[in-house]
Amino acid sequence: MATAEFWYEFASTYSYPAALRVAALAAARGVGLVWRPFLLGPIFMAQGWRDSPFNIYPAKGRYMWRDLERTCAAMGVPLKRPEPFPQPSLLAARIALTLEGDQRADFSRRVFMAEFGEGSPIGDRAVLGAVLEACGVEPAAMFERVQGHEVKARLKAECEYASEIGVIGAPCLVTADGEVFWGNDRLEQGLDWAAHGASAA
Amino acid sequence: MATAEFWYEFASTYSYPAALRVAALAAARGVGLVWRPFLLGPIFMAQGWRDSPFNIYPAKGRYMWRDLERTCAAMGVPLKRPEPFPQPSLLAARIALTLEGDQRADFSRRVFMAEFGEGSPIGDRAVLGAVLEACGVEPAAMFERVQGHEVKARLKAECEYASEIGVIGAPCLVTADGEVFWGNDRLEQGLDWAAHGASAA
Predict the structure, then answer these.
(1) How far apart are CA A8 and CA A5, in angstroms?
(2) CA gap A85, A53 in Å, rounded
(3) Which 3-state string (H, E, C) describes chain B?
(4) Is there a contact between B60 and A179 if contact means CB atoms under 8 Å apart?
(5) What is the mean pLDDT of residues A40-66?
(6) Paired sense of beta strands B3-8 and B172-175, if any
(7) What is the complex's ipTM, to 2 decimals?
(8) How much is the average pLDDT of B88-103?
(9) Strand, helix or coil at A8?
(10) Chain A residues close to B182, C-beta within 8 Å
(11) How many CB pairs under 8 A join A and B?
């Protein structure tokens, strides 16, 4: 079975529609999907950015929010901008990395819906706790678990690996042969490549 | 008849496939197209960039060139990186602005094919002269004409106007109701909007 990796960051706006779309797109092409949460912070820092480029460059930020409005409207999903933007995504990323398989995907979609669909603060334990409960995970034990060294080291390694394989933003679709497709608008192209190789993309 | 503006910059890599695709996509939707050459330089300068962001941020540059290879391969068009990148595009932009209608589109496509299909230096008068002759335009008179104050002032005004309406990169598709769609990969979405409004995009 062809596989692909879906790299996403909870603070990333375009990761929201991508997270809602990607599973169905992969299934339709018979592509197995691995959800890989990571943090853009270290990648942005390496480029000299200490904030979202959508804040550093206001014209790009204005464009992005309007573009995201159009994207969400066309998908029929709500969009409510969280304040502040970007939201602190570290805790959500650690939790997602701790979960496995379908539970990771389910948690991730619910976090994005809370954050960008309802505008909720995803650095808030009450928000993440409610999401965890909706996923059938006991929040208190999870919050304790993700304070451990192992989870922190694993997320750090994921971020370093993302940078090594050429993930420069979020979301990215990465194929088994190492092609990187950046953006919500490239999911189809990346999954076509994963399913059929260069001839189909 | 629905109309849309196609804003492009001769130094812009993604403007190359867009320029080759946009006329057929617009015609298929019954959208009349206005070709609007401009310069990204002033817009980049306003963001503090004195070079292409693809050079300032090498990881983004590497991604872009690979992505462009895939895009051109899928279209069946050649790609040869011009050196240096970005190419000086001022003279080509002035000439394009001086030409009208189909001749402007024809000249523009040919400049892009020379630059990114063959890797030719488009700041070179010999290169532009050959393109002009292929378009049935006498080069010497054109080169003299575009040295005039009127053309320079007109191009400057175009760049200022582009910035005012939210053109933040190239290419952009701008609809009559003021929506901006940035990127070669957004031409279809922008033209759908131009043809049918929000309901179709």
Answers:
(1) 10
(2) 11
(3) CCEEEEEECCCCCCHHHHHHHHHHHHHHCCCEEEEEECCCHHHHHHCCCCCCHHHHCHHHHHHHHHHHHHHHHHHCCCCCCCCCCCCCCHHHHHHHHHCCHHHHHHHHHHHHHHHHHCCCCCCCHHHHHHHHHHCCCCHHHHHHHCCCHHHHHHHHHHHHHHHHCCCCCCCEEEECCCCEEECHHHHHHHHHHHHHCHHHC
(4) no
(5) 88
(6) antiparallel
(7) 0.91
(8) 97
(9) strand
(10) 63, 67
(11) 54
Instruction: Classify strands B172-175 and B180-182 as parallel, antiparallel or unpaired.
Output: antiparallel
Q: What is the mean pLDDT of residues A154-178?
A: 96
pLDDT of residue A125: 97
Q: What number is the average pLDDT over the span A89-102? A: 97
C-alpha B112 chain-centroid distance = 8
User: Over the stretch B116-165, which tens digit does the pLDDT of each residue have?
Assistant: 999 999 999 999 999 999 999 999 999 999 999 999 999 999 999 999 99
User: What is residue A162's predicted lDDT score, i.e. its pLDDT?
Assistant: 96
Question: In B, which residues are within 8 Å of A185 by CB distance?
Answer: 183, 185-186
- Inter-chain CB proximity A47 and B63 less than 8 Å: no
Q: Each residue of A102-161: pLDDT tens digit?
A: 999 999 999 999 999 999 999 999 999 999 999 999 999 999 999 999 999 999 999 999
Residue A5, φ and ψ in degrees, nearest 5: -105, 135
Check if the beta carbon of residue B194 is closer than 8 Å to that of residue B173: yes
- Per CB-CB distance under 8 Å, the chain A contacts of B60 are 168
DSSP state of A115: I
Asked whether the beta carbons of residue A74 and residue B186 sit closer than 8 angstroms, the reply is: no
Residue A173 is predicted with a pLDDT of 98
C-alpha span between A195 and A28 (Å, rounded): 10
Q: What percent of chain B has pLDDT over 70?
A: 99
